[in-house]
Specification:
Elements (H helix, E strand, L loop, with lengths): L1 E2 L22 E3 L3 H6 L11 H13 L4 H29 L1 H5 L4 H4 L9 H25 L6 H25 L12 H9 L2 H12 L8 H26 L4 E4 L2 E6 L6 H4 L20 E2 L15 H20 L5 H19 L5 H15 L9 H13 L9 H22 L1 H7 L4 E3 L1
């Protein structure tokens, strides 16, 4: 294992809060069946994005009819239960070997191993992913009255177009070094940028179900920039938090280590913007050992950090998008609204404390600029700002908690039915999960 240089210095006078040693909580490895049903349960909350943009568009346009709501429900199911899961499965197939070497392999819940089971597990996942895409392609034929063809086509091309670019950049930029922080190579920067495009697919789909975007290109462009920038802010901040899986406290010093074969340069290059010491106010964990309980981005981080830069762009775009949803706007007014949204976001991310009151003040200023009519015009900025603040508030140990709860409840509800269909022996073979120590 290549051990990286130590970041930071001995802790300040306020020591990291000590926690009595205890056995690690048991982590249940995912079963192959559970994975095939829901490949990324920790990402289920992303399914909220399309209904959110759909709702904002419906609110801005005065409402929608029942057929549009039904179409939106089917499109949402196709995107989040068929198309995106197939894309996740492809990602996990390509990264299978690296995922098996990850220090938090069991807790991450990717395509189950071990490496010796690579061939059958990858074959099963590829087959299910292909089946998902076939079902998605059949929906316009099965439900001809909903006009699903353009939406299914757009989503498949968008999701897998981004996926092809992502996989190519990841192959070019990772798997070569265990250095921490990893060098910021062009492929890594492009990877940070391209990941935001998937959020454009989700968000513009919701808008397009309500608004004829070819006839409202300004709305589409402003919303696209907002969604792309938010996606970059979300993913890079999440990756920065995920990088803490490779960090440890040793005698009060923060150290990092990684193997080149783990292919995590796109995460570990972000460590240069992560604080060099663990703030005890934002840490729940032992004085020596894992730092997965560290809310690393909760305090102030450099404004040049990718998630902060992207958040400012997203804030400016969200303010302009809100105004455009209310009607046409002059170049001067649009510039003022976008500048106000960007500055309000900058003021919020630039501080270490009191971010929520500052964001509330920014929303109030934006409302004044917009003349308070309609109030819904401020909502896109409020939603984006709230999401950005949420992105930097947690730790690796709390990440995906909502998805885990949903997975558990859905699994409990479906397991009797699936067991009855498959038979007891097949069910036992597929669900032979074991308890492992985290």
């Amino acid at each position: 294992m290549t051990t990286a240089s130590i970041l930071g210095s001995t802790m300040d006078s306020a020591p990291v809060r000590l926690v009595a040693p205890a056995d690690p909580a048991p982590v249940r490895r995912r079963t192959l069946l559970g994975y095939l049903l829901v490949p990324r349960p920790k990402d289920l909350f992303k399914a909220l994005l399309m209904p959110l943009t759909f709702g904002l568009a419906a609110l801005a346009t005065g409402g929608v009819d029942l057929t549009t709501v039904l179409r939106a429900a089917v499109v949402l199911a196709a995107l989040e239960l068929l198309i995106y899961p197939a894309r996740y499965q492809w990602n996990d197939i390509r990264g299978f070997a690296a995922d098996q070497r990850h220090p938090a392999e069991a807790a991450r819940g990717r395509l189950p191993g071990p490496l010796e089971r690579a061939r059958p597990n990858i074959a099963a996942s590829a087959a299910v992913a292909g089946l998902r895409l076939l079902v998605a392609a059949a929906l316009p034929v099965l439900l001809p009255g909903l006009g699903l063809g353009p939406f299914i086509g757009w989503m498949v091309l968008g999701v897998f177009g981004v996926a092809v670019a992502y996989e190519a950049l990841r192959a070019a930029g990772t798997g070569r070094s265990g250095q921490v922080p990893a060098p910021v190579r062009p492929a890594i920067v492009l990877l940070w940028i391209i990941v935001g495009a998937g959020y454009v697919v989700r968000g513009l789909t919701g808008l397009a179900l309500v608004i004829d975007l070819p006839r409202a290109p300004a709305v589409g462009v402003a919303a696209g920039v907002t969604l792309w920038a938010y996606g970059v802010a979300f993913v890079t901040s999440r990756w920065a938090i995920e990088s803490t899986a490779h960090g440890r406290l040793r005698d009060g010093r923060l150290t990092w280590s990684c193997e080149a074969g783990q292919a995590r340069e796109h995460l570990l290059a972000l460590v240069r913007w992560v604080p060099g010491r663990v703030d005890p106010r934002h840490f729940d964990g032992p004085a020596d050992g894992s730092v997965t309980g560290w809310r690393a981005l909760r305090g102030r981080t450099a404004l040049t950090a990718p998630w902060n830069l992207a958040a400012v762009v997203a804030g400016a775009g969200a303010a302009l998008t809100g105004r455009l949803l209310s009607g046409p706007v002059s170049m001067m007014e649009g510039s003022v609204v976008a500048l106000t949204g960007g500055l309000a976001t900058l003021a919020t991310v630039a501080v270490a404390r009191h971010r929520v009151p500052i964001a509330a003040a920014g929303a109030a200023v934006l409302a004044v600029i917009l003349g308070f009519e309609p109030v819904a015009a401020v909502l896109p900025w409020v939603v984006v700002m709230s999401a950005c603040l949420r992105c930097v508030s947690g730790s690796l140990s709390t990440m995906g908690a909502l998805g885990d709860r949903l997975r558990s409840r859905v699994g409990d509800a479906l397991s009797p039915l699936v067991r009855a269909v498959l038979g007891r022996e097949t069910w036992a073979a597929l669900t032979g999960a074991e308890q492992v120590r985290g």
